[in-house]
Amino acid sequence: MDFNPEGKTFPILKLPFLPLSNVLHNFDYLEMLDFSFVSKKCQFVIQLIKSDFEICLNFQRNRSPKKLIAIIFYRRKKCIFEFLIDELNSRKKYLKRNDESTQSMDDKHMIWVDSAKEWTDYICGLFQKELNYIYLHSDGSIQEMSDISEWINNRQNALDYCEFSGEETNSVSIELFFQKAQFSIHNLSFALEQPYLRKPLPFEALDLTELSFSSKTWKKPITWITVNDIINLNYRRIVMGVCQFSENDINRIIKRWLDGNNPQMEFFTVALKPLNFHLVLDGIEFERRDRMDKIMFVYDFMGREECHIFEGGYDIRGKDGTLATIQQIRSFHSDTSKFWFAMAVWPYNKFPYKGEERSNL
Fold first, then answer.
1. 332/329 Cα distance (integer angstroms)
2. Same domain for 161 and 89?
3. 177, 208, 239 — which closes off a domain?
4. How far is C-alpha 297 from the geometric centre of its chain's CA atoms?
């Protein structure tokens, strides 16, 4: 059906800003992008519109429905729109950029990476947003990881979330990514099929809040994170998959916290074989709670609200009097021979506890 048979135009840019804004809010994000190419004024109008979403650059093809590199808009952690880089490249002439560097590249994948960075810069600028998340493949080349790290250095001071995932792992390129990074990463996640990375990874410089480590399979436990890593890191929350920490390792981690190491720690959990708590608590003062004394610890992790329920457990206090509870009762989902060891620091609980004994925590 022809909705405009006489070919009449609508003078949209002559509208006052408020009705113009209402019109543009009925555009989808690709239509807004196309509108911005019309003129500098159109671009400026889009920049003035308030937008409620976060921006992710995704290099993990398995996360994209069409298995392609994409820029994704999230709202409250749900995908609301996706720009595919190969579709955006059909509009690249409108960017009016110098393509000499891209034309000289022989590596087709690096041409896509370069395009992804260029489009991310334009889209972030158009919607007046920072890049919030980046999903990276764990077997990225040295050039790819180096270029991406240096590109983020030049555009912003921090990332909310960075993830490495994949069946293969290029340890050298991941190390180089962190060595070159001059930006903070608040939430860092590794989901690796390969059970190890070469050391060291310079986590200390990243201003980390949360870390997630998983090997994707219980048959290949995490061996590339050591007890010294856990002790030396300053973090709030860590969730690890199956690893091989012993009772002595857990005892060292607890004692360092009791002595005041990493006072901002809120929650630490790792999947382990059943522990002998006589060894875990060796040299530590504790109070054993009754199994019927259930208490919920609620915390934020990777943008979600999570919950761990303690059924009894062992209460311990740091030298400053801060109370924490440790326990190991919940089985690991893919291996019933492993259980989650959990340590929660109660002043950071988001769920107010109503019990008499802990009412002032």
1. 10
2. yes
3. 208
4. 22
